[in-house]
Design goal:
heterotrimer; A alpha/beta (307); B alpha/beta (247); C mainly alpha (368); A: 307 residues; alpha/beta; Rossmann fold; 2 domains; four-stranded antiparallel β-sheet; 10 helices; C: 368 residues; four-stranded mixed β-sheet; 66% helix; AAA+_ATPase (chain B); ABC_transporter-like_ATP-bd (chain B); Putative ABC transporter ATP-binding protein (chain B)
Chain lengths: 307, 247, 368
């Protein structure tokens, strides 16, 4: 039995005019760290709300720990930990007051599950008398995670925990998730940042309420169908315009300092690349064959679904 | 006057004993895309406020678009554009009404607004939606429109605050296309962000730690000198040294 | 039970850490009581008056002296000619003038009938009438005291006796009304906002995904405000008794019990509003503005309900403060016991139960 299972879940808003989630299906296995990767407005939060039983799906079925999200919502609410996308603690209560409150609401105490949160709590302990609203973004996330963990949930739902958090805190946060996974907790986490995908066991790419792909990050990358090249030149924008308009090029887009491109004819790419160089003769030109990232895969999958 | 868009020399902002911005010095070329990075609380926002003419420095020198940050704040404001991550157009006005409003704020004539506005709508491919309320547009469109409005009065410099956080990768590319095109037209682009993947699109990057600029170079050079694979690692190495706890 | 206590403790933290809530909770009632009690009193005091004494004799002077000692009047410098009267009126210096004719005393001695002229500014009819009545009363009593001559024609002087408020203390009318108004607005606004704030902050989402039951959320939200409102009630009563001289004539425990019932009605209304709205602004607008006007209009302390058109009278029946106003007047001012107010009490009790029931039924265990 998977920890979480969705079958053809659909949800619309505003009397059916806005389609938030469109027939979404995927499973999260027990003890897995599963990532739901997609931009803002892709439907991630709607999926989280349906799974945490605070929103009813229009169609489809979903279970959490084998329990139906509609019928068994009361039991599910005892078994899951949930960290909504928006910081959802009491800003005017101190760190320790928040933690004590949530522990009591879940009929437990900080002591009872201290070993589970110890790692994280130790980092915010120096601020335990500070109002939660006065913490930095990273600290807030740690506190929210503590509160979501305090009752030792079987499944943890984290909706965009790293949004608005700086790189150092993000890294620490993901390290914490790895440790929690080792404690046997199944985790479903969402993020709009493609570079966080590789930190998950498996991921689902989601866009406009549709699942583009579900697989391990490695498989998604190795399924990239064409050789991918990276190139740059002194006049980057000119290079981008030239390559994009060239008939031999299939796709060409900026990717950091480089642009990434694929060719329509995947057979003799190296030769095509040299032809491009000779044709446009860009100054300070360099190119290399490169390994696709999740972001490249995402763009490709998006282009395939958008007519 | 030089052709530098921004010149900072020992720019400092002090709140009591606390140095929010501590003697920062750098120069930004005209038409450059300059990334201004730092963790929360490193002093990015404070520095940017001074450069936008919204607050006075405690000491040091700085000129923006050739104007002095102490005495010519009004001139600075007339020569810069600003777009924040929080979408800054009026949702209950149409695309055209928003353009007319911002054009009016910057003192453009009616005919100018009409002509440039029309060009802009065509370029963005929004002709079908010109009469639509901005609130009804998809997020990606809003962001592109928002940027175009920010450079509508042809400023010398445009300040962007985390412009592409959370948008899908395809829209993000389209957005950067707009930025590249603006830079090619000679507009200097000043991007503040704490997302490294966004930073890599910039020509040069400065990284602030504890109120100081601790690194300034092209993304490639930075990765090389920090012996890092990604900008994330560069940032991590620098930010780990931070003493200041963000709040 | 432990959960509930933790929740209630949290609510108290919210209240005591938020200066605005505290201000609305305790500042507003005190200000309103003082405002209505002192400044907006319906009594007329210190009416500006000046005397044109053409008689300049013993009687006229004695009457003028009496005016001076009367707290209803503020006697301004004397007037010396008839045209001066209008001038002084125009300056707004006086609201009233008293003219003694030259042969005032002579007439009185001769026929026992003398005339005085009272001129009043009728642009303020209320004050004018009161001033004229005061002066005629004063002249009459002067006549009776100085010449208790029964040989004159029999005079029938009506003796008015005002029950329950013999001193014509204006605060008496207002205090019960203000108490009703305060509870109606403060209790409703604060409870509704406190629930909606959880929705706005996103904490409601976390609470929903917890074993905490909806009834508990409502109870836990209501209890702190019940306690604070009771403290508020005691504060208002103390202010009324010691500052405004409004005594509690009836049984204090009965008054207390009825007030707690009314507070519960208001809290229930607040909880209902909070369940139907999603932003603090809307909740505040409904409970402050939406409650203020009906309460002012239909409670009965500003405008008598009996004089209203029938449709408005019908509407007034659904305003809880109307019943509480009847109860508090009966117990506080008239000193009546429960047998006189059981009907109103029953209505309030039914309203509380009904409102709480709807609030509970409307409480969403899910979002939207």
């Amino acid at each position: 039995m998977p920890a979480v299972s969705l079958q053809h879940i659909s949800k619309t808003y505003n009397k059916g005019t806005v389609k938030a989630v469109n027939s979404v299906s995927f499973d999260v296995n027990k003890g897995e760290l599963f990532g739901l990767i997609g931009p803002d407005g892709a439907g991630k939060t709607t999926i989280f709300r349906i799974l945490t039983t605070v929103l009813l799906p229009d169609q489809g079925e979903a279970t959490v720990e084998g329990l139906d999200v509609v019928k068994d919502f009361k039991t599910i609410r005892r078994k899951v930990g949930y960290m909504p996308g928006k910081f959802s603690l009491y800003q005017d209560l101190t760190v320790s007051e928040n933690l004590t409150f949530f522990a009591t609401i879940f009929k437990t105490s900080i002591k009872e599950n201290y070993d589970l949160i110890k790692d994280i709590y130790d980092q915010i302990k120096p601020f335990s008398d500070r109002p939660a609203g006065k913490l930095s973004g990273g600290m807030k996330q740690k506190l929210a995670l503590c509160c979501a963990l305090i009752h030792k949930p079987d499944v943890l739902f984290l909706d965009e925990p790293t949004t608005g958090v700086d790189a150092v805190s993000r890294k620490e946060f993901w390290e914490m998730l790895q440790r929690l996974k080792q404690q046997g907790i199944s985790i479903l986490v969402s993020t709009p940042y493609m570079d966080e995908a590789s930190l998950c066991d498996r991921i689902a790419l989601i866009q406009n309420g549709n699942i583009l792909s579900v697989d391990t990050p490695q498989n998604i990358i190795s399924n990239f169908p064409a050789p991918l090249y990276a190139a740059k030149a002194k006049n980057f924008y000119q290079l981008l315009k030239d390559f994009r308009s060239d008939p031999a090029v299939e796709s060409c887009y900026a990717f950091g300092e480089y642009l990434h491109l694929t060719f329509k004819d995947a057979g003799n790419c190296d030769q095509l690349m040299q032809q491009l160089r000779d044709k446009y003769q860009p100054a300070e030109f360099e190119y290399k064959k490169t390994v696709p990232t999740i972001e490249d895969s995402f763009i490709r999958l998006m282009q395939q679904t958008i007519p | 006057m030089s052709n530098k868009a921004i010149i900072c020399q020992d720019l400092t902002k002090q709140f009591g004993a606390f140095k929010a911005v501590d003697h920062i010095s750098f120069e930004v070329e005209q038409g450059e895309i300059f990334g201004f990075l730092g963790a929360n609380g490193a002093g990015k926002t404070t520095a940017m406020r001074m450069l936008c003419g919204l607050s006075f420095p405690t000491s040091g020198k700085a000129t923006v678009a050739g104007f002095d940050v102490y005495h010519q704040q009004e001139k600075i404001k007339a020569n810069i554009g600003y777009m924040s991550q929080k979408f800054s157009l009026y949702e209950n006005l149409t695309v055209t009404e928003n353009i007319e409003f911002y054009g009016g704020v910057y003192g453009l004539s009616r005919t100018e607004i009409k002509k440039r506005g029309g060009d802009m709508i065509d370029m963005l491919g929004l002709s079908q939606s010109a009469k639509k309320l901005v609130g009804e547009l998809p997020l990606g469109w809003k962001q592109k429109l928002s940027f175009s409005v920010a450079i509508f009065h042809r400023p010398k410099i445009v300040f962007l605050d985390e412009p592409t956080g959370g948008v899908d990768p395809l829209t993000r590319r389209q957005f950067w296309d707009l930025i590249y095109s603006a830079a090619a037209d000679g507009i200097t682009v000043f991007v503040t962000t704490h997302y490294m993947d966004e930073a890599e699109y910039c020509n040069r990057i400065s990284i602030m730690v504890d109120g100081r600029v601790e690194a300034l170079d092209t993304p490639t050079q930075l990765k090389h000198s920090f012996q890092a694979q990604t900008m994330d690692e560069v940032f991590y190495q620098l930010a780990r040294r931070a003493q200041r706890t963000a709040d | 039970m432990k959960q509930l206590l933790a929740f209630i403790r949290k609510e108290f933290h919210h209240v005591f850490r938020d200066k605005r809530t505290l201000l609305i909770l305790f500042g507003l009632p005190v200000v309103q009581i003082l405002l209505f009690g002192f400044a907006l009193s319906s009594e007329v005091k210190n009416i500006g008056i000046a005397v044109l004494d053409n008689a300049q004799d013993n009687n006229s002077r004695q009457l003028t002296d009496r005016l001076q000692t009367n707290s209803y009047f503020l006697v301004k410098p004397a007037i010396h000619s008839y045209p001066e009267i209008e001038e002084r009126f125009k300056k707004g210096e006086i609201k009233c003038a008293l003219v003694f004719p030259a042969d005032f005393s002579a007439d009185m001695e001769r026929s026992g009938k003398a005339q005085v002229q009272v001129i009043a500014d009728a642009s303020d009819p209320n004050t004018a009438t009161i001033a004229v009545n005061y002066i005629s009363g004063m002249v009459n009593s002067y006549l009776q005291q100085t010449r208790p001559a029964p040989h004159l024609n029999y005079q029938i002087l009506p003796q008015l006796r005002l029950l329950y408020n013999e001193e014509q203390n204006g605060s008496l009318n207002f205090v019960p009304g203000v108490i009703a108004l305060i509870f109606m607005i403060v209790c409703t606004a604060l409870t509704s906002v406190s629930v909606v704030r959880e929705k706005e902050m996103g904490t409601m989402e976390v609470l929903l995904v917890s074993p905490f039951s909806p009834i508990m959320v409502l109870v836990a939200k209501a209890i702190p405000y019940l306690v604070l409102s009771i403290i508020n009630f005691i504060l208002i009563i103390l202010l009324s008794v010691y500052l405004l001289d409004v005594q509690v004539r009836g049984n204090f425990l009965l008054l207390f019990g009825e007030s707690v019932l009314f507070i519960i009605t208001c809290l229930a209304l607040g909880l209902l509003i909070s369940n139907l709205t999603n932003s603090q602004q809307t909740a505040m607008l409904i409970s402050m503005m939406g409650m203020m006007l009906p309460t002012l209009l239909f409670t009965g302390f500003l405008f008598p309900i009996e004089n209203m058109p029938i449709p408005l009278q019908v509407i007034s029946r659904i305003v809880p403060s109307r019943y509480y106003y009847i109860i508090i007047k009966a117990v506080m001012l008239k000193g009546l016991d429960f047998s006189y107010i059981w009907k109103e009490t029953l209505v309030l009790a039914c309203m509380s139960v009904g409102l709480l029931g709807i609030a509970l039924a409307k409480f969403k265990t899910r979002l939207s």
